[in-house]
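seq as requested:
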Amino acid sequence: MDPLPEPVVRAVIQRYARLIHRLGAELGERPLVLPTEKFFPDTFAGDTKSLRRLVKRMREHAGMRDIPVKPVLVDEEEEAHAHGGGGCGGGGCAVPKTSTDSPTRLVDDGDGWRLQFQSAELRHPVALTCTVARALGYVFLIETQPEGTKIEDPVELTVDLAAVALGFGELLLEGSHIYSKGCGGPSVAKLTALGPQELALGCTLFVARGKHSARALSKELPPTQREAFDDARALLDKNPALTRALSEAPERLIDGEFDLARERPLFGGLFGKKKHDDDLSLAELEAMLATAPPKKPAKKKDRATDELASLVDEALASARAEAD
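C-alpha cells:
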C-alpha cells in the first residue's frame, strides 16, 4: 500500500484537531466501539425491532441518549416486490450505497431525527453499522453546531471524522473497503467519504488520545484496513508530539504548524514505491508544490578557494607520480 502524500496526512490531522478543539467537551470520553458482543450483545433478527435496538445502543456508545433518533424502514413493500422477480435473491451480490447527508437518509422532525433505511441494508451488518455510525456523526455535528455557523466543507469528510471521534472508527474502516464476491465476480464497495488510509489515520489519533487498545482494534480489521492502520500507527509512533498536542492543546495543530517525521527509503524520491503522478488529484499536486521547500541558491565560488584547490590537486598528482 502506497503511503499517503504528506499534504493529505496534514489535512486529516488538522481537520481532526479542529473537531477536537471545538467539540472536545461535547464528545467527552468515548469508548472504542468494536464489532464484538461487548458492544453489540443483542440478537439481530433483521427486522425493525432489532434495528431500533441497534440504533439505541449505538446512541448510548456515542453519548447521544438525549438526542431522539428513530430508525424506520421505508421500502419494505417495494423490496418484497423487487425480490419477487429474478436475480440472485441472496442479498450478497451488492452492498447498498449510502449517503449521510442525503435528504432521504435523515429527516429532522423538529423534536428528533428520523433515520431512514432500505430493507437491503439490514442484510449487511458492516454496511448497516457503518451507515448508523455516519448518521450519528452527522446528527452530532448538527446538534452541537454553534448558531450562525455551518459544518466544515466538504461535509461528508467532516462527518466521517466526527464518527471516528464518537468512537466508531473501526466500523467506518470496515465500511471504507468492503470486498465481496457475487454473481458478477469480486467487487469492492466504499460506504465512506474518506478512504481506508485517511480513516486509519483518524482512528490512530482517536486511539492515542483516548489511550485505547490499538491491538484490539487491529485484530478486528480486514487485511487491507489492518495494513492501513498499522502504517498510521507507525507514523504516529515517530511523532509522539502530535499525540501530546492533540490531548493537551489541539489548537496547536489546527494551522499545520507541526513537524512530521516519516521514514523514507534511500531512493524514495525516484525509485521508491509511491503514488504515480497521474494517481494524484490536482489538489494534492498543488498542495505538494505549495509545501515544497524552496531551493537554496548556489553558493558563489571563492576565487581564493579555487586556487587553493588547484594547488592541492597538483600536489596530490605529483605525489602519486613519485610513488609510481
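Strands lie at 69-73, 106-108, 113-117, 178-182, 185-189.
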